[in-house]
Write a structure and sequence with these properties.
By secondary structure, the chain is an alpha/beta fold. Helices cover 43% and strands 9% of the residues.
Amino acid sequence: MELLSRKDQFAHLKPAVGFVLALGALSALVTAVLGLMLAQAGDYGEDLLFIHKWSGILLVLFAFAAWWLHFKREKKPTLQIQRAYLGTLSVMMLLLGGAGHYGGSLTHGSTFLTQYMPDTMKKLAGIPVEEKGPKLIENLDEAVVYVDIIHPIMEQRCNSCHNASKKKGDLQMHTKEALLKGGENGAILEPGSAAESELIKRVHLEENHDDHMPPKGKSQLTDDQVLLLEWWINEGASFDKKVAELQADEEVKTVLLTLSDPNANKSAVEILLAEGTTPFDEEKLNAYVSEGIAIKRLSNEDNWLQVTLYRKDSVDALLGRLATDFPDQITWVDVKDTQLSDVGLEAVGKFKNLTRLRAEKTAVTDAGLTHLAGLSFLESLNLYGTKITDTGLDHLSKLPNLRRLYAWDTEVSKEGATKFMEEASLIEVNLGYEVNMIDSLTVEVKPIAVSN
């Protein structure tokens, strides 16, 4: 403002310079007092706090000096006062930047300037661009549990408040020594007993509790992260042992696998839907919608489509058109209670990424099921109330990801379903419900199902 007010077109700003300097000096004073009070909590690293504190105090002094010199210059505009004023103003601005930077380092960590910087800006500044997301562990058995698994969790969820420059509760967690030292309430680790460790106790408190960690408003630990922390502590909280040297139950092993392969515990269908598919022609989609066809995205973030057909006639022809226009994008199809025939199933078989098909109460037969043999991602199939028999199941036995088949009120027998289960990777074949009268007041309803 001082520089702008020297130009003729901004001369009207000149009277406001003194007011802004006064407001800034008083604000700096209040901020410094509050900062000194906050520093008494002892939650910050001494070296960084020392620099921030004294740069803040000097900022207050230079702010008031600049204010005083501004008014002195107005009354007696000598060259000496003018130089002193501009010099003081320049130093004040440098102190403002320095105090602000070190204050940010105290509250957000020393890397706060670059941590969330866009990759393009990092490249321009010559800063290495790190890969997004957690680093994958190539050899899980040889990974050092603390270094490769536990420390990254703490760095992600704990160290923003418990690091070299900030120690909430007199606790730092960025090194082995700091973890073992504990905080103002003593040790946070009880090797061999996660349940007795203060770290785990606080993690399990209600999020609204004052002692819950991480505090409300911060990114919380996931269930998998908590499980891994508990496992590490229960196994002795070693800082040098490898994964292969510690005992792990099946639940822990399942989570550990995701550290080397994020898709390890996901089904092929989950992976497919997460990866997404190719874009489609929006105009074609809108044309179907204008016809009254219920076709829409599964979500706004991807190109997967779901289709529900309510009209009872012309279903086969409509599916043929959809298979031509959206063969890769349609993943859910609902054609229940329509005149779908085996001809329509031929079109359905062209939706190569189909994961769910509802075709109950339609005219499909065993012969039509041959068209579904190539749907490698089909996970759920509802054929309730159709004419299929045990013979039709043979056409479905090679589907690698089929998990649920609904076949009640069909000609499929329990024996046929059992045989099918032995050949397929199916979880369950649902054949309907069995109703038994226990007594005059009690009715027992049990599903008739064959499952692994």
